[in-house]
Amino acid sequence: MIKISKVLTLDKIEIFNSLVNCDGNVNRIDYFSLGEPILDPPCLRGTIIIDFNFQFLLDNQDYFDYGSPIDVGSIKFGFIKINSDVERFIESTKCNYNKFFNVIEKCSFKKSPFDMLSNHIFSMEYLEIIENYFQLSVVDLIKKSNDPHTWLFEFCLKEGYQLELEHINKIFIPNTYLFMSPFLELNKINSQKIVTYNPKYGIESYVR
Question: 42 pLDDT band (50/70/90 cuts)?
Fold first, then answer.
């Protein structure tokens, strides 16, 4: 199945508190992306990346708010330009859990749609799948854009979603963060989950 990822900076690491405290609940709304994060551009130097397994999504079905085949934040803040009302267009990109899961399932059995979801490599075959679930204006934007954030299928989880150590494959952090809380505590709990990289060269220098 397709992996899930989340990119964080040092000022947004409270997501890890539930892992350290073993309470399992994250009391905030959070956004996640299918597949690998978009690393270049920009190259990531002081960035944290969480690599989730697909069970994380399955266990949080009740907390699923919406999915979108386009990076909603990039539309909202004007990085992806559209020729219509922004809020209305954003609503047209959103889908419920069933549609979201159906798209993933259909893409998982075909190479080029899987590559688009996993590595954000453009695929006409992927568009043929999602045109059954989204308005033509959404499909057209994905088709005509060269911005990989337009090809980033994301989802939002409501406050209170479940996060367990078993949901995480790896946590990638700069090696300078290793002795900081909460990474110090997480490394004691399960050091195999923590992978460090040299921030001088960026995480893209680490072969995942």
Answer: very low
Q: Which domain holds residue 177?
A: 4-205
Q: Phi/psi at 53 (nearest 5 deg)? A: -90, 170
The model's pLDDT over 61-93, given as tens digits with 9 standing for 90+, comes to 999 999 999 999 989 988 888 888 999 999 999
**CA–CA dist 207, 197 (Å, integer):** 10
pLDDT at residue 146 above 90?
A: no
20 φ/ψ sector (left φ>0, alpha ψ -120 to 50, else beta): alpha
What does the angle CA 151 – CA 71 – CA 19 come to, to the nearest 5 degrees? 110
Instruction: Domain count for the chain, please give it.
Output: 1
Helix 136-144 × helix 86-93 angle, to 10°: 100
CB 196 within 8 A of CB 175: yes
Q: What is the pLDDT of residue 45?
A: 64
In angstroms, what CA-CA distances link 60 with 32, 69, 111? 12, 19, 27
Closest CA to 125 of 107, 101, 149: 107
Distance (Å, rounded) from C-alpha 39 to C-alpha 15?
21
What is the average pLDDT across 163-179? 93
Distances (CA, A) of 84 to 71, 80, 138, 141, 144: 17, 12, 11, 12, 15
